[in-house]
Amino acid sequence: MTENAAMSDIQGSETGLIAFLGLGHMGGPMAANLIKAGHDVIGYDPVPAAVEAAVAHGIPMASSAHEAAAEAAVVLTMLPSGKHVLDAYRGVGGPGLLSVVKPDTLFLDCSTINVDEAREAAALAVAAGHRSVDAPVSGGVVGAEAGTLTFMVGALPEDFETVKPILELMGKRIVHCGDHGAGQAAKVCNNMILGVSMIAVAEAFVLGEKLGLTHQALFDVASNASGQCWALTTNCPVPGPVPTSPANRDYQPGFAGALMAKDLRLALNALESTGVAAEMGPLASRIYDAFAAGEGAGRDFSGIITEIRDKSV
């Protein structure tokens, strides 16, 4: 046995059973990476296609979320919205996860939800005698598959130390952002920057086209000047300059437009609840809402450039 394999076995045995609830495009690969590292994982997802994919990746499946969580030391959720998380914790028409698990279970939520919802979920877990960590991710499906995600973590220091070895098997950068809800706060701020910057980069390329610049010329200047940003140098919205960007495969995500629209709505909620006098964030939210209302929902968010180009004279 290699040294790394031995360490994985030690980590898995010390952590105990991990219930992984939500095995979609992100959750499935994340759970698979935990399995590969030697962790004891049991999964659940109500969607048959997700179950089929999870089984193909060697993830044992439970017949219900309650069954998966009952004996778990860690309950990891990767769910579509804050309502799904809160309903799972409290229960709808029956007992919730908080009432069927063992005492002092650690609830690790990797969903992207409202900051206030994350804090409410943490308060519910703590009141029920458990521990809570919010750890939303950045890096998309490619990062989930490669185990290179960034985790933004909101947790008490001792709980952060507990989950850090688990998160390190699914990501390459783990940042402790503060107490409960701080992970979601960091995620919403980061993705507001990302949404605004992608629109700016896309508008600049369309302007460059109108002015007679080649894509490569603009890229060569901006990527080495003050316009440099992730939306340009990693997820460039035009084909050519960055061969790995979604623009080179007809904007297949990646990070889908529907997800960017969702994250910007979360940013808008946070801006409204805190009274921040923001203008670019709300504008980006409206632009991506319109993009996601059509075919853009299933395209990479960098495909916003096609909307800008189509609306230009």
UniProtKB/TrEMBL annotation:
One of its GO terms (molecular function) is 3-hydroxyisobutyrate dehydrogenase activity. SUPFAM superfamilies: 6-phosphogluconate dehydrogenase C-terminal domain-like, NAD(P)-binding Rossmann-fold domains. It is an enzyme of class 1 (oxidoreductase). Gene3D superfamilies: N-(1-d-carboxylethyl)-l-norvaline Dehydrogenase, domain 2, NAD(P)-binding Rossmann-like Domain. Residues 181-306 form the 3-hydroxyisobutyrate dehydrogenase-like NAD-binding domain. Keywords: Branched-chain amino acid catabolism, NAD, Oxidoreductase. It catalyses: 3-hydroxy-2-methylpropanoate + NAD(+) = 2-methyl-3-oxopropanoate + NADH + H(+). The keyword NAD applies. Residues 18-178 form the 6-phosphogluconate dehydrogenase NADP-binding domain. Its EC number is 1.1.1.31. Pathway: Amino-acid degradation; L-valine degradation. Belongs to the HIBADH-related family. This is 3-hydroxyisobutyrate dehydrogenase.
